[in-house]
Structure formats: structure tokens, C-alpha cells
């Protein structure tokens, strides 16, 4: 029983890079899905997953840079990457407009990630044929 | 396509349960049918008379009480988990339906999600 219909996927990442493998597993899945002819509708970062969109991550040079690797993938394939605003603000992931609104000393959102509400996740749920979750759970 | 949001984390000590509740509220706000299932340590959300101010946290009871107002269809709790944590009728929050969290239950929903 083979389903040849291509899927459109919404990927939800809730595990942080460097404390969980969730962003790495999700990226491997995303590449494999595109190779197999499917599409990625959007990537939604929720909970600790928002750390993936930080521009201030500086791992040792011999380790993968997951935020940059993800950002390159999103740009190359024109896939929107959205971090949940409530999760982001709690964890110090800030874009220029939130920096201004809360009078903070800096912003740190990596392009092309954007910050938006859970409505983006709801819309992905409705529009995509599958929504997959990448958790950091043990 | 009804969604089941599953909370299996205790109300205090982890934030993922609160973020799961926000997911459920968000679906309901966009008129998507959604129910909540509390299972495992998550059934502690349903204990009456929580006083978390001593640990500088807000009670999750108030958040949960808003669920029907937001349009969340059902609040379900796994019967075995409630027994294991001693959450019986006198301390169980009102408006909760006891159920068995098994394949038959999950089959009633087109998708299920955890916050993490």
C-alpha cells in the first residue's frame, strides 16, 4: 500500500538546539521530505524550540550551527520559519519591533525567522496535509 | 477535524503543560474543534484548591476554568492516572469527564498534539 500523493507538512519544533536533538531531527526530516517530492508549508518554533531562531548562538567551530543550518534551509527553499511570540518573549528571543515595544537593550532574531502568534500554527494545521512535532522529551 | 491536546506534565515544575493549554485555546479561538486530555502526572492539573503562590506561580486552576468559555469541547482525564494520584471525586475539578486514554479514545480525533 503506497501513497503517492505528495504531502504538505507543517513542522513544529519544541526542543531547543544543543539541549535536545529536535531541531537536527526536524532538519533531516525536512530535507528528506523535499527530496521525496513533498513540500514544507512552514516551520513553527514553540516552547524551547524558539532558541533555534537566536542570532546570538555561538557553538564551538567544530560543531554544527543549527540556527544557521536551519536559516540556510529556509532561505534556499523559501519556507517560512515562525517563532511563537509568547514563547519567544518569555525566553529572550526578540525582534526589533518587540525590542522597541518593551524598551529592551537588543534584539536577536535570526533572518529569515519571524515572530508571530499561535494563529500561524493553527493555519498550518488547517492548510497542511500533515503536522509533525519534534519534541525534546526524554 | 477535532484535535486532542494531551497534557501529561504536572502543572508546576514544567512549562510545557501551560503551553499545551495555550495551543488548545488558540485552536478554539479560531473555531477549530478541540478537547483536552489530562493523563499521567498531568492529572494534577485537575486538583481542587491549588495554592501555588508559595512557589511564586499562578494557579493553573484559573486558566483551566476558562476552557469552556474559550470553546474547548471536552476536558477529559484518564481514569487510571486519577486513581494513581489520588484524585477522586471530592478533589476533582468540576466539569471533567473520566475516560480511558486508549486507542479507542484517540481514534475519535483526527490528530493529537503535545506541547513537548
Give an overview of the whole structure:
The complex is a heterodimer of chains A (138) and B (116). With 138 residues, chain A is of the alpha/beta class. Helix content of chain A is 34%, strand content 18%. Chain A has a 5-stranded parallel β-sheet, sandwiched between helices. In chain A, α2 (66-77) links the parallel β2 and β3 (81-84). The model of chain A has no long low-confidence stretch (mean pLDDT 95). Chain B has 5 helices and 5 strands; from the N terminus they run βαβααβαβαβ. Chain B has helices at 16-29, 60-65, 67-70, 79-84, 103-106, and strands at residues 3-7, 34-38, 75-78, 97-99, 111-113. Chain B has a 5-stranded parallel β-sheet with strand order 4-3-2-1-5. In chain B, β3 (75-78), α4 (79-84) and β4 form a beta-alpha-beta unit. At the A-B interface, α5 of A face α1 of B.
Q: Any low-confidence stretches of chain B, pLDDT <50, length ≥5?
A: none
Helix content of chain B: 25-40%
Largest interface, with counts of residues having CB < 8 Å to the other chain, equals: A-B, 22 and 16 residues
Helix fraction of chain A, binned, reads 25-40%
Q: Using only CA atoms, what is the Rg of chain A? A: 15 Å
What is the number of E strands of chain B? 5
Shape of chain B: globular
Biggest sheet descriptor of chain B: 5 strands, parallel
- Multimeric state: heterodimer
Structural class category of chain A = alpha/beta
Sequence of secondary-structure elements of chain B: EHEHHEHEHE
**Global Rg of chain B:** 13 Å
Can you give me a brief rundown of this structure?
With 138 residues, chain A is α/β, with parallel strands linked by helices. Helix content of chain A is 34%, strand content 18%.
Amino acid at each position: 500500500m503506497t501513497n503517492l500523493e505528495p504531502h504538505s507538512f507543517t513542522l513544529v519544533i519544541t526542543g531547543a538546539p544543543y539541549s535536545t536533538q529536535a531541531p537536527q531531527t526536524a532538519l533531516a526530516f525536512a530535507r528528506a521530505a523535499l527530496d521525496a517530492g513533498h513540500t514544507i508549508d512552514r516551520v513553527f518554533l514553540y516552547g524551547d524550540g524558539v532558541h533555534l531562531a537566536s542570532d546570538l548562538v555561538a557553538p564551538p567551530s567544530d560543531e554544527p550551527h543549527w540556527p544557521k543550518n536551519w536559516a540556510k534551509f529556509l532561505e534556499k527553499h523559501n519556507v517560512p520559519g515562525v517563532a511563537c511570540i509568547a514563547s519567544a518573549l518569555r525566553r529572550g528571543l526578540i525582534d526589533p519591533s518587540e525590542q522597541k515595544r518593551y524598551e529592551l537593550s537588543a534584539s536577536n532574531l535570526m533572518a529569515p525567522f519571524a515572530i508571530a502568534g499561535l494563529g500561524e500554527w493553527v493555519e498550518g494545521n488547517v492548510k497542511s496535509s500533515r503536522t509533525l512535532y519534534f519534541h525534546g522529551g526524554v | 477535524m477535532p484535535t486532542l491536546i494531551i497534557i501529561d506534565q504536572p502543572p508546576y515544575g514544567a512549562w510545557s503543560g501551560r503551553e499545551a493549554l495555550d495551543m488548545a485555546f488558540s485552536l478554539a479561538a479560531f473555531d477549530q474543534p478541540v478537547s483536552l486530555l489530562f493523563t499521567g502526572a498531568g492529572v494534577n492539573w485537575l486538583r481542587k484548591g491549588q495554592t501555588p503562590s508559595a512557589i511564586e506561580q499562578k494557579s493553573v486552576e484559573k486558566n483551566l476554568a476558562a476552557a469552556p468559555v474559550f470553546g474547548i469541547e471536552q476536558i477529559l482525564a484518564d481514569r487510571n492516572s486519577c486513581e494513581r494520584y489520588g484524585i477522586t471525586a471530592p478533589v476533582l475539578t468540576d466539569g471533567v469527564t473520566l475516560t480511558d486514554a486508549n486507542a479507542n479514545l484517540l481514534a475519535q480525533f483526527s490528530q493529537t498534539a503535545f506541547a513537548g
